[in-house]
Structures
1.
Amino acid sequence: MTYNFQFRDVFAAWEFLLEGLALTLELSLVTMAIGLVIGLAGAAARVYGAPWLKRIVAVYVETIRNTPLIVQLFLIFFGLPSAGLKFDANTAAMIALSINLGAYSIEIIRAGLEAIPRSQIEAGQSLGLSPLQIYRYVIIFPAIKMMFPALSSQFVLLMLATSVVSQISAQDLFHMASIIQSRTFRDFEVYILVAAAYLVLALLFRLAFAGIYQFVFARR
Amino acid sequence: MSLVELKNVVKRYGENTVLNGVSLTVEKGEIIAIIGRSGSGKSTMLRCVNGLEPIQGGTVAFNGTVVNDPATDLRKLRQHVGIVFQSFNLFPHLSVEKNITLAPKVVKGVPPAEARALAEAVLRKVGLVEKIEAYPDQLSGGQQQRVAIARSLAMQPQLMLFDEITSALDPELVGEVLKVLEEVAREGMTMMLVTHEIGFARKVANRVVFMHEGKIWEEGPAAKTLGSPRTPELETFLSAVLH
């Protein structure tokens, strides 16, 4: 069993790959930003909110975490237009990924919030801080610091999971791989290259997160 | 009008009654030492004064404001009532300066430069001005507690509550904290302190309150109450802690 690798045609299509890479990167970064905001707000609601609010957030989190991402994606891209809500593929991808990452972020940040001792909140209250000020100045930083490894892992997973958006024809890295494959019929080479691209991207993200941790959190 | 007025305060945790009809008044400038066995309700009573513990009966008033009235703005009230805890409760991710200036800045809107000067002033009082850039985990327990006192002082409260503030300290660090307390007392601060330091209570407090089984069992001028207890419970307690 021998296979003769021929990367030349695949390499020739590098512009497609680069274009796909750009969308993958963009989707990942935007989603991480939105996911983090959803996570911070949702976790606060889940831990400190009124009972009805806690329940709503719990339903959101459990629904998302217990259904496949691709189903969520299809619901938004193919399902919602029936209700009159139509998005282009990239927007639908971004919405689905953000909703998905948001749910996981809430769970992770919630664990961080619950690990903050009650006495820290009391110290804030006793100084006259409002609940929002306590959250912002007293709780968030130690909570995120504690959960940073879990959170950054989740973010890397999300980046890898962006590959499903090719299923709704968003032109990400994986989608571009299929295009190159159909032009060159060099399946093995294309997917080796794409795997390598995801691997490099994932390592870069991990490196960046490690840098952020060192820079922002490790000192304190 | 008394600065603090507790009337028939009842506090329960489920079936367990922690405060069973506690009445106490504290005048401006007074220093009240609250002593008693653990579980006698002394810390709980202290925490009722700034509304950290909701109560099930009676009233707690500070400066005429009813603390346990749901309509009371507790945030506003707490700006005037400082509390220092047994376990310091400094914010671990903030420097000493930020620990002290956080509340003045975000609650009172004190501008940064002024807040820094304020931090230096209160740190000078507790003898730690050189630690202004340090973080809590770089300080000893005694130093952390002194910073906590400084943080509370920075809000310029009218009343300070001290909840067993030397109980978590190594014995050799107790002295430096008590010294700071004495200093604060000398400046005329109204203070309520829950303490096991009977000697200190005798020396600094105007009045001693002995709590037993959720009630104020005995109270009176410090020297007299500690010197010649009227009840066998206080006598037993004193002989237990003094030996």
2.
Amino acid sequence: METQLKGVRTATPAAQTKTRPKKKSLNKFITISLFLAPAIIVYILYVLYPIFSTLLYSFYKWDGVGAGEFVGLQNYINLLSDNVFWTSLTNNTWVILTSIFVQIPLGLIMALMLLAPIRGIRLFSGIYFFPFLISTVAVGLLWVLMLDPLNGIINQIVSVFGFENVEWLSQSRTAMFAVLLVIVWQFSPFYMILFKAAIVGIPEELYEAAEIDGASAFTKFFRITLPLLMPTIVSSSILAIVGSLKAFDIFYVMTGGGPNHGTELLGTYMFKQAFVNFNMGYASAIAFVMFFLAMIVTIIIQALDYYRKKKGAYV
Amino acid sequence: MNVAIKKVPLYVIALILLVFTGYPFLYMISTSLKSRTEFFEKPYSLFSSFTLENFKSVFEMGLSRYFINSILVSVIAVFAVMLIAALASYPLSRMKFKLNRVVFLLFIAGMMLPIHATLIPVFKLSQTMGLYDTIWALLGPYIAFSLPISIFILTQFMQEIPASLEEAAKIDGCNHFGIFWRVILPMLTPALMTVLIYNFIHLWNEFIFALVLISSPENMTLPLGLQDFKGEFSVNIPGLMAALTLASLPILVVYIFSQEKVVKGLAGGAVKE
């Protein structure tokens, strides 16, 4: 993501001729507005105005119909003493940690395999990418069946190790573990693609030089590949953090946040408060916290990026 | 000989990954081809008898309705996004004006945004506009949330187009709209393909807006319809697997025929050329 904001250099068309500057600048203003208008209108209507609205709603006690009652910061104060809110926040943190410490390394391993000198890897790589293509709802339903206590293949596998009839999705801990496993399954291929592109971009001469110096494959990986992949690892981590804050679909489909809020996330909790309990004001407060966290993460990343560039560091 | 032995661990890892990523699909397709009795007798084995009965029953239960809705919404939204984002990207990447950077950053920041922060107001908005519980309610949010990544991809690409082409068109008396249509847009095809693939797959699979904005079964898109099927198919697992297979089929087919393009498209702005 940090590469993304690197910047739009506005291409400067040759200096404008100075004749009739006023009319010209008015014309230019109209032209620019016309080009931007459709995008800006849709964006304001469905993105900017709703965020502002959500902030406003969060100061009300409101069931979604009629007028709400202004309660100031009460919703936020209630959040602080709401156990489910803290459970959700913890679970979101687990998703972030799993993404960074399991998904990204696995993605890197998969990318290295794609470039390994073995037969049939082209076919393999096609299949490695499958999980990322299909809808999260389909992924969720498929895995719920595979995790089924009686007929599921997963229990068939773990029974080899002496575990019988594990009810994966009926206990908080195993449910969380199971959903995290599915997340790893679904999103590792995405990081695989990012890493593959980055590895392909590493100049071949570096490896040739290392070879002449008699470096082992191991040394080459830790001295050349890994350091040069740092920018990709950083930007993948950013994508993982932001993506994990937004997580919703897979949890909603597989556990619905249950059992007993054991796998609740900010996203699922907000959804329940808004569209099951019709606590729209309270739900708005949760939603705004999600927005706020995403913004904080973005700002920190941008600031770090800025200072790093200022120092002139490569990574 | 020595080299061959060295490669054994590589093959082992590659195969483990293959089973991990591929087995669930094999299970899904194989189960969808089994009869219900066969599934109960041997849930793990490959299908031995072959039946299309499940696919038939899935269509009888209305899967085709979900298909049509999904195709309508994703196709219309994707083409609208391509046009709107291309228009907006032109001044953002090729013209100098005061608020350029601010407007650009405002759009790009949308990529970081949790959809939940807009959910309740968008829900209210759809009711106010009388669109609630129609597939048209999805168009607005789908287009709006596809704009950030699309504008990001297109502006990056447009910056690379040499200014000299534009100058030549200007001398020939083209105004900005002429330049956009005749010079820029035709050169934009590869980037537009990326935008198309990325957004189509994401919108085809989109779930949360559909969950909030649609309630009647006849207006549901595929992901929502599948979730709805879950209850009705709790005893008919081969049927559910047939529905999942059918829903995944369009994208898997596109992927098989143009793997490179889809991979590049899905990596979207994250991978630079």
3.
Amino acid sequence: MIMKKSFFNKHKKFQKTLLLVSLGGVIGFLNGFFGGGGGMVCVPALERVLKLDNKHAHATAIAVIFPLSVVSCAIYIFKGAIESLPLLTVGLGVLLGGIIGSIALKIMPGKVIRIVFAFVMLAGGVRLLI
Amino acid sequence: MMIFLQILFGILGGFFGGLGMGGGTILIPILTIFLGFDQQLSQGINLLSFLVMAIISICIHLHNNLIETKGVFWIIIGGLISAVGGSFLATVLPSYILRKCFGAFLCVLSVFEFLKATKKEKKSVSTKKN
């Protein structure tokens, strides 16, 4: 009886590990292939599979995607896809914008911004497809 | 003028990143559409600027105890392997094909964003009742 139970537990644990590894596989591929967006998949995955609340999921997603992005960056640089001058100027902007955004996070209402954000994404997507 | 625009667009992308809504999904299409960057260059810049921002946010989140470590190891293992494949594929593909793939990815993400934004509204109503 006890043996049967422990076998069942082991089996379940293995299944969960497999699920986590394959989830990571999807996130890593998307993040590398599209140079970002891994968080869009990682946050809901962490919420559902590891049952994290929204705040923890957001924070943990960054920690998960960080090592994946290091690997991806290395490959992009190695293959000569990145030019240094635009990297410096855009990077400087991102840093400034990031600071402003994290401050604004406390002030701005979420829902309207999210819907606007979705429409901007859709417009960008369609423009790139054409 | 070009440098000014690069910084400005960087700020815009970083702003959305700071809001926790995935800066890359805004930054990458802006760089490709308005500045005529190669899709690979836009993606590479996004990856690298994410790394810088991520170091800062990981430090803050660690300090606030928001990063969960349970189960995360396996996600990272799976992610590291596929990140190599995804990034390699991205740097080998012709820019216009990668651009179209990214456009399709954005369209899909925008639908999810829209659903999430409208769903959250319902949730906040139900919590008000409680």
4.
Amino acid sequence: MPINPKDIEWVEEPAMNFWESTYLPAVFDGLRTTGQHVADFHPVTEFYPEQKPNLPSHYRGVHRLNRDDKGRVKCVACMMCATACPARCIDIVAQDAPKDDPHWADRDKFPKSFVIDELKCIYCGMCEEACPVDSIELTNIFDLTGMTRQEMMFDKEKLLSVFDQTKDTVGNPIRTHKGKLGHASDFTDLHTLGPATTVRADDRSAKANSAGVIE
Amino acid sequence: MPTVIVNNKPVEIGSSEKLNCIQAAERAGDTIPSYCWHHDLSVVASCRMCLVEVGEKKPDGTIAMQPKLSPGCQTPVKDGTVIVSNSEKVLAAQKATLEYLLLNHPLDCPVCDQAGECGLQDYSYNYGRGYSRLQEPKNIKPDKDYIGDQITLFTDRCIMCTRCVRFTREISGTAEMQVVSRGTHEEIDIFPGEPCNNKLAGNVVDLCPVGALCSKDFLYKQRVWWLKSKNSVCPGCSTGCSITVDQNEDVLYRLKPRENPQAQGSFMCDEGRFGWKYVQSDRRLTTPEQQSAGKTISKDWDVVLSSLTTTLADLSDQKKSGTFVVAISPWATVEEAYLLARFAKDVNPNARLAIGPVRTVGEDDLYPKDIHGRPSLPTKFTIRAEKCPNRRGVEAVLNHFQGEVVPFSSVLQEIDSGSVEALFVLGGDPEGWISDADAAKLDKLKLLVVQDLLASPASGKAHFVLPGAAWAEKEGTFVNHNGLAQAIHRGLRGPEGSRPDGRILFELSGRSGLFHAASLRREIASEIPELAALGVGDLGEFGVSLSSTSKTEPQPVG
């Protein structure tokens, strides 16, 4: 549809006066800004790599796979991270935990292989959020390099070694349930879960402090 | 007609139908949640999930409701039955039931294989509370070490619906599973030393509404939300069980039975359920080949197909009957049999059409079994001795083109006597259709074309090898023992280099366009009176019986 000429408003450039037409005021205005910067010296250049940047604790760098209190990989291979991953860079092969091994007695499933393609990853942190057992976390290691693509495929051992390397460093705390599995596989000491849905105002039993008691 | 009133909606049911409240509500479009009830098993009303308000509309128009809730699965409906499944009282009961079911259920959904298709998850979301008020430790029972070769039991996840117990008692009749102990110690177990290894054992995994019974074959292979399903038909025997093919990224992971009252009911046998591994076999043929005097001339589809066309065109000069034989395996679809039979008759009107070897193993295996392992009546499931999916369909095509069906054994005799010069075999039987001794006879042939799934003694001798597709990788029609024509769909792509058989034969016939099963079905129906029922094109979810003569208008295909 053509534009109605009535809707068009023509704006004319204002005419320049004598001094403006010499361009001198604009030149001096520019020189003034330059002069201010020369006098006011605040360097922003960082001397990387001699001087490491001070990253915030929520910085999203290389992944790590956390260990539980027995030193096993905390991951239960539920593949939630692989499902959530928008870059599809996580590849997990699950295996049932060896039944006769007391070391694995309380576990059903664990990752036989866990590979993250660090080159495909967009470091969005969705895997960290999806993880129900707080196993996968992003560290603030940002300077990862490799000579081949294969080197950048981080497997389970490498991701666990990132955990060993970063667990005690400043800025890389183990964020939740230190050393323990999350709710999902905590059979013996299961916490009462908070309401996942909104509780209706008239549901008095839901708001009770202890079970079976309705105030 | 008796009328049932479900949530203020009147629903008419058949006068001779025996329905319970759950089924009547389904007719009205309402869902009454249930765990223990299954339409093929007996009613126990133990899970209490289907509690509804039931009443009766008196002839004078008044409605009398029963004061307490009744289990919908156990309450039959009749004319004037009133069912209320959405009142405050019912919703509160559903919430309470779910809270009790979840008291001791471990929330290990992340590691549970059922997550994503779990009745407990779905109902908790739809009817449940969303949180637990239990502050005591859960009652966790240890998992069973071994209950069968194909199934595994996570006792802690069980909600004691006893579907598996009733299945082994009523459908397989083998009764391996039982409930042991009482009250809070109640659990499912096998009799000591009597594992659940009957041929229908895999069905208890499908029946289990939670993740207690899992298939060892599928355990931890994939999360179910990654799987993509296509409707298909099990090719394991001539029963033709309706199934779904579940794959992810062109890797087949499992087959599940799909309910089809016309075919097999709700179940399938373990032979079919786990017998598809040849689809991913290393022995799959993946390169087309043209061989001459032990030397490979070409491995390119275009070259092989065009030189095969010219080679076969030379056969048209031989007017002698019986020198060109085409053997079509009962594993081929109706469409492939039709395309090949038609092509052979076009090339040489004297070509002889034979059916490939029809493999039978033992006798029909009827379930349920009695205590001595003998089948008892009424039969609820049959594993047929005829281990091929489409003998009837192929025979119908051969009968039309030639008036008789030549068995493969007589073809072998003719080859041995030297009267056959050229043989085109359309294979597909994964168990192998020819022995080494029989394959030796094929040396006498001047031309041998083998279109098959797996490498066989014959494919080594063939002048032309055409790698075909497995049943899960192609579109087509299988006709089961009962004359039920069901559509199979392309669930996944085959290995690189192989092609769906229908496409190969379509190109070989020199037809223009693309292989399209529904259009071909219509063409077949108009030409072969015995297969006129295929004229509907789209066979739908449940298939079409060949004996149905009703002329249906061809539907547009999308």
